[in-house]
Amino acid sequence: MRLVTWNVNSVSARLPRVLELLAAEAPDVVCLQETRVSSDAFPHLPLAEAGYQAVGHGLGGRNGVAVLARDDHVLEPVCTGLPGEPRPDEARWVEADVDGVRIASVYVPNGKAVDAPEFAGKLAFLEAMAERAGELVASGAPVVIAGDVNVCATDADAWDIAALHGGTHATPQERERLALTTAAGYTDAYRAIHPDEPGFTWWDYRGLAFPRGEGLRIDQVLLGGGLDVALADARVLRELRKGHKPSDHAPLLAELTG
Domain containing 50: what range? Predict the structure, then answer.
């Protein structure tokens, strides 16, 4: 299985780039975040023409998640929404089964600022994600949780950790709660393959952050239920951060054998 996760920063604005990804990489599964469309406005038709089926969860606004699967796979919707999430009016979690593998696409809240009400909501969401992650592993089935987790798990995941001091994404509170999901029985696919490479997946549009290498690694593919033994490769598709109308995130690809 070739699985990609990508915060597209609007699937409508970035649809040509999504189709470019599908044509270039032919992934089996794609998890999208920040689709920014309601479920009934999701672009099923152009994706179907490209050979992909999709399960989307969108309520409009700046959120929205989806799971895509190539037509030669069986895609079965499971649920939308995360049990216990603090803002069920935001579309940040969707689950589907693809050939017997449970796939969850997640878009963790940004948190805004450590003294903002949104930060407490982010911590609560991470706690709910960890709870659900544990339930999925306990089922005994293979599971993937992939998406924009909006947390730098370690100092190595930021170009300059001092630049984030006092801000979100690298606080002990966020890291501790994200670690609860990993501790439930998951492997960070990129770090398992590249223990020493930064692997940045996000760069600000402003200040030439991308060419200057000023990025963050905030997108992850987490493997549970024994899938870690099938991990063959993981890499960031940096070329898709370039070109016409890119997202501020690059896709992250994980390859599983068997």
Answer: 2-256
